[in-house]
Amino acid sequence: MNQSHSKQTQPAQSGHADREAMLDYIHAMLGQLRGMAEAEKLDMLAYLIDMARVEVSEILRSQLPPRTRPRRGSVHR
Q1: CB 34 within 8 A of CB 67
Q2: Residue 34, exposed/middle/buried by CB under 10 A (0-12, 13-18, 19+)?
């Protein structure tokens, strides 16, 4: 029974790592898109992309265990 329990928790942990990696990737891509929009003086588009990036940061921060969460005010970058 112990072996089946560890087999069941492994995919969940792996899934969490995959999700975190995907969110990190999205966060990085949004940063690049924001930079492109800013370079073209597309201020509203840059702002909206940045809001999406902030949302990803909040999702990432909320998934961290409580003692590894950044202090309030710091943003995942």
Answers
A1: no
A2: buried
Residue 75 lies in a domain: yes
Flag whether the pTM goes above 0.70: no
Is residue 4 assigned to a domain?
no
Number of domains in the chain: 1
Q: Does 73 or 52 have the greater pLDDT score?
A: 52
CB environment 40-62: b (16+ within 10 A), e (fewer):
eeeeeebeebbeebeebbeebee
Structure tokens at 52: 């999406």
Q: Which domain holds residue 37?
A: 16-77
Find the length of the chain. 77
